[in-house]
Input
Amino acid sequence: MNCLDDTIAAISTPIGEGGIGIVRLSGSNSITIADHIFFSPKGKNLKDTKSHTIVYGFIINPTTGERIDEVLVSVMKAPRTYTMEDVVEINCHGGILPLRTTLRLLLDKGVRLAEPGEFTKRAFLNGRIDLSRAEAVIDVIRSKTEQSERLAFQHLEGRLSVKITDLRNNITDICIHIEAHIDFPEDELELMTRTEIINSMSEIETELSNLSKGYNEGRFFREGVSTAIVGKPNVGKSSILNALLQRDKAIVTGMPGTTRDIIEDYLNIDGLPLRVIDTAGIRESYDLAEVEGVRRTLRAIEDADVVLAILDASRPIDEADAELMKKVKDKKAIAVINKSDIESAKFKFPDDTNGKGDAAWRSGAEAAEKSHIDTSASCCDTVPVVKVSALKGDGLDELKNAIYSLCISSSDIIGTEGVIITNMRHKHSIDRALESLREASETFENGEPFEVVAISLRESLHHLGEIIGVVTTEDILDRIFSDFCIGK
Amino acid sequence: MTGFEDPIKLLNISLESLTPYRLMHKEQDCYDVIVIGAGHAGCEAALCTARSGLNTCIFTTNLDTIAQLSCNPAIGGLAKGHIVREIDALGGEMAKITDRSGIQFRMLNLSRGPAVWSLRAQVDRVLYRLNMAQCLERQKNLTIRQDIVEEIVVEGGKVKGVVTSLGTFSASKAIIVTTGTFLKGLIHIGLANFQAGRAGEFPSIGLSDSLRKLGLKLGRLKTGTPPRLDAKTIDFSKTTPQHGDDPPPPFSYSTEEITNPQIPCYITYTNKKTHNIIMEGLDRSPLYGGRIKGIGPRYCPSIEDKVVRFSDKERHQISLEPEGLETIEYYANGISTSLPYDVQIRLVRSIEGLEDANIMRPAYAIEYDFVYPTQLRHSLEIKGIDGLFLAGQINGTSGYEEASAQGLMAGINVVLKLRDKDPLVIRRDEAYIGVLIDDLVTKGTAEPYRMFTSRAEYRLLLRHDNADFRLMEKGHKIGLVSDAAYEKVKEKKRMMNEEIKRLKGVRVKPSDKINEALSTIGTSPIREEASLENLLRRPEIKYGFIRRFSPSPYGLTSEVEGIVEINVKYNGYIERQVKMADRLKKLESKKIPLDFDYRSIQGLSKEVVEKLLEIQPETIGQAGRMPGITPAAISIILVAVERYWRQIKSPC
Output
């Protein structure tokens, strides 16, 4: 169970809309921990910052040094805060991705993800909110819990819970052998061998690690895939967007951007929600060469989960196209050859006439080569190519399939039998479980005493238990009694 | 005859200590405390209250079976051995009596880590009970009476006293019920059954009904015991002897040396033939025929259970344990059964070494009433009946050690109650005793509850070597541990800390001498200066190695050396568990008011409210351990409880 005064954090603004969001921390370590991931160009640190002031700086990944976002951080020291504990609020500006990364960095530093309504609960318990509002506090906890429980039920038809239960059973298997070894030294038990235990641990580690890697894909289901459509002017970006949207008219909800001139549209591919980031360049005719246009496009590529790089089949591929392909090579990207109906002779794939009709999986490099562009400057071999005609509607299904496959069937989630983690809390628990299990196998292989190995194994069980329910030692004893002939 | 000689003097008891007791003349039969039952729980309870100056009376159905070891003639074992040490540290008697009655001592699990080493002793059954009975007889403030208590009298929700089978009434302020398996005890041997408390003794029928009438919920459990064999008819040459440790390690922190002669146990096995005999006899098994309704312990199954459930196992181990130094009776540990006598004889005689063995006492199963322990508070007082405490097997536990521990805790809490103090609740990170009681009152039990180390979340903290560090202060505060003993443990702790400080400070330079010694014990040489602490952290290095190179100036005993080694080696893990435990403490400190009205809280499901009303958790921590209570429910209770306390502080 969680305790009352550790340091907690959560994204405290609604997810999905708007570019600004706040990650809030509360607890005695919140300022020190925030300092770990905060960098001020003026060399300030949060610890020495006066209470109730705002500091400008960057969130950086302390291990890689990577800059996550440009932020304003409010530091509020106890007791004059909402929770009456030290509170730090990190105002991120770069949309959902930096918010999420910031939160994850904090969790990695030992902060606990706040439970539903926990900030309000603390505010009450610490005397910040008066007695008359106690009922309201309970309502907040309850409604937020119900909300998250509803989401939990949607969880891809409970497949995750089945998977976690399986993994827990496998860990319990190891656990009961270790525990039986400790508690029944006088009994003759047929226990797993050393090698069996090591192998089993390593198998579970692999599975947990795959699940964890699959989080990004799972997040797509929950928060949508941010998709950027980029390309030179007049390659047909908006017509492709409109063509995609037309297929799903019913669920299109155009919403104008708020703080920035980006418009997001939503569409749905077999349950996978796509948030199409329509860069300004699409609706307004920016020239790619123009500085502002380039900047915007790069920004869109950077922020997006998936990039659709649009090429024009009716024109030869030029340097701007090649430059674009180079930019997207490290992303999940698809080269979309538009205007396949009026394809020029210069833009031709070797076997595109054999009537396969499906998405043509070709490397952008090939395309570039065909059009006599320096291949080294074009792009890598990993970007799939799809031909469409936005005008005629040809190839749109193929494009959708390609997007779906890119998000879902990527090698990251092989081995998890289609089980996908969509919830950061779950991902966090899985990571912790994996960490504990690794520690268990390390101590086991080092020949540390079993009761030390058992500590890590139980922690691992506990963290998985957080996802699906509570763990008790009774589980372990029940299994020991049913699996072993105990009692000489 | 040379005139009058005081018989008490002949017993070599100091008259001085008895004088006030002898002078005490009672106008009416009136006590501070009445203890019902003189088994392991009852003895500890009565000794505790009497030693604390409370006028105590203990009732037993049979003076000759005080502190009888009804089942195996052994004390301790995994987790149970830890409990015995804890009882000793709190000022209980069990460890001392075991040391005086033990005929074989073994430290179990030495091949595992030190947290799960555990002591087990074979004891002389007769010596054990005589030693305990003597202890009771010589105790000031303690009256011992042979009689059967039939009824507990409660008026206005408060205990008044007891009525016995002789029709007498005895009054008291508190009552501790420690009746073991005696409540409506029913013994089964094959299809034959009869009422008994244990073999050869009266059951207690009236008391069970009396408890029901007081509104308590009772259930039924079952346990069993194996046959006792005649050593004259055992061929020990066909078995493997199992000896104890030499020198035998004692249980009590106060015992200097074990003086009894030490004798071995003997190991043999069942075989296919045995299993066939059992299978053929199952049609007359009260267990398989459905006659036994009580639930038995899964960790201590009868031999028929083992053979049926694990049919692919070709043999099961049997340990022939001596019942004492002066008897030919051997306890055949491993073949507990309720099969008919004729099947028992055949099954015993199918076993190697037992071909001609005679059964002196048959194995049997016993069913008995127990009180669902979720009706208790952590103090072991029944919720809603002021002054009624329950301890031992009546609470659904199994084992002498578990019983003694509860007896002691019930005793302590009666003392504190009559002194108008808060009860002593031992936390789960402080002792197995804490785990035991918290499990019982929070989760209840469906089978006879036995302690295992795996029940403890903080196993690395609850070691047998540090029970005195953990608990002696509490025992001393109550007055059960002498100043001298308490000073001794403080000194021991100081020495340990000094030595650990020294190990951190002393640095060893790489030299041929040390590196050679390191490679001899199979660990890598040092290339640069290393502290002794760092060296001792290595799994291969024992304290003895440190002693060779840098003997401690503090003249440590080998016991303290061992404790130092454990603390250095497992420091990281120990600290981790301490941190976890600290978090628990905060939740444990959030008290929930007695009779808190959960029904008035919006947002708790009906099931949750019902559970909370049944268990009436005393703290938020305890509520969180209740099965089926979600973190969200805990948050809601936390807020509601906070509101309650604030309203009390500042009524609007």
